[in-house]
Design brief:
The protein is α+β, with helices and mostly antiparallel strands and 647 residues long. It has 5 domains: 54 residues, Helix hairpin bin (Helix Hairpins), CATH 1.10.287.610; 209 residues, D-amino Acid Aminotransferase, Chain A, domain 1 (2-Layer Sandwich); 102 residues, Beta Barrel (OB fold (Dihydrolipoamide Acetyltransferase, E2P)), CATH 2.40.50.140; 157 residues, 5' to 3' exonuclease, C-terminal subdomain (DNA polymerase, domain 1, Orthogonal Bundle), CATH 1.10.150; 79 residues, Rossmann fold. The strands form 6 sheets. Strands 12, 13, 14, 15, 16, 17 and 18 form a 7-stranded antiparallel β-sheet that branches. Strand 13 and strand 14 form a beta hairpin. It starts with a helix and ends with a helix. The relative contact order is 0.07. About 2% of the residues have low confidence.
Length: 647
C-alpha cells in the first residue's frame, strides 16, 4: 500500500505539471514505467484508490480562459506496446490505424458554415475556450460549404522546424522543452497575436457530429468528407489482423521524416455500428486503443558530462557515454536538459545508465542503474570562466552564466540590443550580426557605433552594398538619440523588461547615474519590483565589465526626453488590467504602452489595487470580470478608456 501511494503521488505531480503548467518533470519513459507498476500493484491487490491516475481522465483546468463543458465526455485511451495485443484487439474486424499526434487536443464546432467555437480537451469534461486563437491556426478553414452543425476533434501541433525557430527567439526563462509544450502554451495565450505568429496547425482525428449527413458504417468515409471540407486529417491506414504488423512498421519507418511530433499510434474499429455496440469503461472507450512502440533500451557507461553555454547564457548539460546502437543508428550523446534531470537521475561519471530514443528520434537517458550521485555541477562558465549560478526555469532548475558579456551569449545579447523596443536599429538581423562577429566587426554592443571603420569590408559582403551600408549607418545614427528606458531595456538585465525599465527610470527621474548607484532598499520599494529584480539590477551595475562598456556607450549616446515625460501624469496612480480582444489599439501591448506613457500602470491580474479592468466584453463571465465585480472595480471598454484620456 505504501508503494502504491508513493506512485500515485509521483504520477499525479507529473501529470499536473504536464497538463496544467505546460512543463515536464520526468520523461515519458519514466512515467509509463511507473504507471505500469501502479497498474500491476492495483491488479495484484484488488485495491484502487480514488486519487489514482488510473481512475482519472485528466486534471482540473487552471487558467483565466472561459470554461466550456463538452457535450460528450472525452476519454483517455487504453494502451499497449504489443503488436500481438493489437491483433487480438481487432480479431476478425477491420480497423483504422493512425498516428497519435503529440500536441494539444482541440474540439472545433462549426455553425452555418463558419467556425463557431474552439475548446481544449481540458479534463475531458470541461475545457477552455480558445476560439480567438483557433481563428489564426495555419491550416483550418474559417468557412466551409456545410451549413449544419459540425463538431470535430483534432490535435493542435507545431512543427519541429517552427519549434526550433520560435524557441530560439524566446528569452531563457520562457523557452519550451518540446513542441507539445510550446503548442499548449501558445494555444492558451490570451493574446491571439502570439498564436498568429507561431504557425499552429490542426490535424483532425475524429468527426463527432455532422447534422443530417449519412456517412454509412465506415469511419474512413468521415475522414474523406472532412478532407473535402478543407481539413487536414491524420495519416491513416486500413488494417486487419493480417497486415497490421506491416502497417505499424511502415508508420515507424516514417517517424524520422515526420514534420510533427507523434507519441505512438491509435487503432480504432472502422465500423461505426460495431464501435457503438462496445460502449466504454469509466476511463476508456472500448472501440479504440493506443499503441506505443516499446522503447529500445541500451545499457552503457557514462563517460562525461559536457557543459555547453548557449546564446542565452544557459549552460546545458550533455551526457557523453560509450557508443550504443539504438533504432539503427550509433548513439553516444544525449541532452540532460537541466540540473533537475541530473539530480533526479543521481548521476556520476562511470555510472551504468540505460538510454533510449524518445519518440524514436531524440536520445535520452532513461535511468541510472548505479546512482552514485557524484557528478559535480560547474561553478564557472566553461567559456568565459566567470561565475555560474543555478536558477529556476519553466522546466526546473538550470545552470546559467552570470557574465552578461560572455562570448557565447554575444549573438543573442547583440540581437536584443538592436531590437525594436530596445535601440531599434533596423537592418541588423541575427544572420548579419553573426557575420559581423565572425569577421571581427562586433565584440560588444558599443561596437555598433564603430562600424564605420569597416565600411569597405561591409559593402563588399554578400547581400550588402553601398545602399545597404548607408541605410544601416543611418539607422545607427538615429539610435544615438535614445530614450533612457529603451536603453536600459537594451542592456538585457535579467527580469528587466521594457515596463520595468520605465518604472526604474521614473523612480530615478531619468538619471542614469542615480540608477547605477541605486540601493537595494530603494529598488524593492519600486511598485512591482521584488527582491529578484532589485538584486539583478544591483548585480549588473556592480559588474566592472558592465560599467566599462556602459562608459564607452555614453560617448556615443544622447538621452532624449522619454515618452513618459512627454505624456504627463494623466493616469498617475491608476492601475489597469487589460483582458480580451482589443480593436482600437493594434494589440494589448500597444494599449499598455499608452497607459504607461500617461503615468499609469498595467498588471496581469485583478486585485484590490486595480483601478480599472479594461474588457470590451463587459458582460463576459470571465474570471477577471467576476473578480472585478466582487471587488467593486469598474469594468470599462476601450471606448471608455479613450474618453478618459481625452478629458
Amino acid at each position: 500500500m505504501e508503494r502504491m501511494q508513493e506512485l500515485i503521488e509521483i504520477l499525479n505531480r507529473a501529470s499536473r505539471a504536464y497538463y496544467q503548467e505546460d512543463r515536464e518533470i520526468m520523461s515519458d519513459f519514466e512515467y509509463d514505467r511507473l504507471y505500469d507498476e501502479l497498474c500491476s500493484l492495483e491488479n495484484e491487490s484488488g485495491i484502487v484508490l480514488s486519487s489514482s491516475p488510473t481512475q482519472k481522465v485528466g486534471h482540473q483546468v487552471l487558467s483565466s480562459l472561459q470554461k466550456v463543458r463538452h457535450e460528450s465526455r472525452m476519454l483517455s485511451l487504453d494502451k499497449t506496446k504489443s503488436i500481438e495485443a493489437l491483433k487480438d484487439f481487432l480479431g476478425e474486424h477491420r480497423g483504422i490505424l493512425s498516428y497519435k499526434m503529440d500536441g494539444l487536443t482541440v474540439v472545433l464546432t462549426y455553425r452555418d458554415g463558419e467556425l463557431y467555437q474552439a475548446v481544449t480537451r481540458g479534463n475531458g469534461e470541461i475545457g477552455e475556450d480558445i476560439t480567438h486563437n483557433a481563428r489564426f491556426f495555419k491550416n483550418i478553414p474559417l468557412k466551409i460549404s456545410f451549413k449544419g452543425e459540425l463538431v470535430l476533434r483534432g490535435e493542435a501541433v507545431i512543427s519541429f522546424d517552427d519549434f526550433n525557430i520560435i524557441n530560439e527567439k524566446l528569452e531563457a526563462d520562457d523557452k519550451y522543452k518540446n513542441p507539445r509544450n510550446l503548442c499548449s502554451g501558445t494555444v492558451r495565450q490570451l493574446n491571439s497575436e502570439i498564436a498568429a505568429k507561431r504557425n499552429v496547425c490542426f490535424i483532425a482525428f475524429a468527426l463527432v457530429k455532422a447534422d443530417d449527413i449519412d456517412f454509412g458504417d465506415d469511419k474512413n468515409s468521415r475522414f474523406k468528407w472532412l478532407e473535402k471540407m478543407g481539413f487536414e486529417c491524420v495519416q491513416r491506414k486500413i488494417v486487419d489482423k493480417d497486415n497490421i504488423e506491416n502497417a505499424v512498421k511502415e508508420f515507424e519507418a516514417q517517424i524520422p521524416d515526420n514534420p510533427f511530433a507523434t507519441d505512438g499510434l491509435v487503432l480504432t474499429f472502422s465500423s461505426m455500428e460495431y464501435s457503438s455496440s462496445l460502449g466504454e469503461t469509466a476511463k476508456f472507450p472500448r472501440d479504440s486503443i493506443a499503441f506505443k512502440w516499446a522503447d529500445e533500451l541500451a545499457e552503457t557507461r557514462l563517460l562525461a558530462v559536457e557543459w555547453s553555454t548557449s546564446r542565452t547564457g544557459l549552460i546545458n548539460p550533455i551526457a557523453i557515454f560509450e557508443p550504443v546502437e539504438l533504432e539503427g543508428t550509433t548513439v553516444e550523446r544525449a541532452s540532460l536538459h537541466n540540473i533537475s534531470i541530473i539530480e533526479g537521475l543521481e548521476l556520476g561519471i562511470g555510472d551504468k545508465i540505460k538510454v533510449y530514443k524518445a519518440n524514436m528520434i531524440i536520445p535520452q537517458v532513461a535511468e541510472n542503474i548505479t546512482r552514485s550521485n557524484s557528478l559535480e555541477i560547474p561553478s564557472v562558465c566553461p567559456v568565459c570562466k566567470e561565475e555560474a549560478e543555478i536558477i529556476g526555469l519553466r522546466d526546473g532548475k538550470a545552470l546559467k552564466c552570470t557574465n552578461p558579456n560572455c562570448r557565447a551569449q554575444r549573438v543573442c545579447s547583440l540581437e536584443h540590443f538592436v531590437s525594436r523596443d530596445a535601440m531599434n536599429i533596423e537592418g541588423l538581423s541575427e544572420a548579419t550580426i553573426e557575420k559581423f562577429i565572425d569577421k571581427g566587426f562586433l565584440d560588444n554592443y558599443t561596437d555598433f557605433f564603430r562600424l564605420e571603420r569597416y565600411k569597405d569590408d561591409i559593402i563588399a559582403m554578400e547581400g550588402f552594398g553601398e545602399k545597404s551600408y548607408n541605410n544601416l549607418i543611418n539607422a545607427i545614427e538615429r539610435s544615438r538619440d535614445a530614450a533612457l528606458p529603451n536603453f536600459i531595456y537594451a542592456l538585457g538585465i535579467n527580469n528587466v523588461g521594457l515596463s520595468n525599465a520605465k518604472l526604474l527610470c521614473k523612480k530615478y527621474r531619468n538619471s542614469l547615474e542615480d540608477i547605477r548607484n541605486a540601493e537595494f532598499d530603494e529598488l524593492i520599494a519600486v511598485d512591482g519590483f521584488g527582491e529578484v529584480i532589485a538584486r539583478n539590477i544591483i548585480k549588473y551595475f556592480d559588474s566592472e565589465s558592465s560599467n566599462k562598456l556602459l562608459d564607452e556607450a555614453l560617448e556615443f549616446i544622447h538621452f532624449k526626453q522619454s515618452d513618459e515625460d512627454e505624456g504627463g501624469t494623466l493616469l498617475e496612480g491608476k492601475t489597469f488590467v487589460i483582458t480580451g480582444d482589443v480593436h482600437i489599439f493594434k494589440n494589448r501591448k500597444e494599449m499598455q504602452s499608452k497607459i504607461e506613457e500617461l503615468g499609469g500602470k498595467v498588471t496581469g491580474s485583478v486585485s484590490a489595487k486595480t483601478t480599472y479592468l479594461v474588457n470590451n466584453n463587459i458582460n463576459s463571465s470571465s474570471s477577471k470580470n467576476k473578480k472585478a465585480k466582487e471587488l467593486g472595480i469598474p469594468i470599462i471598454s476601450e471606448e471608455d478608456f479613450m474618453e478618459m484620456i481625452r478629458e
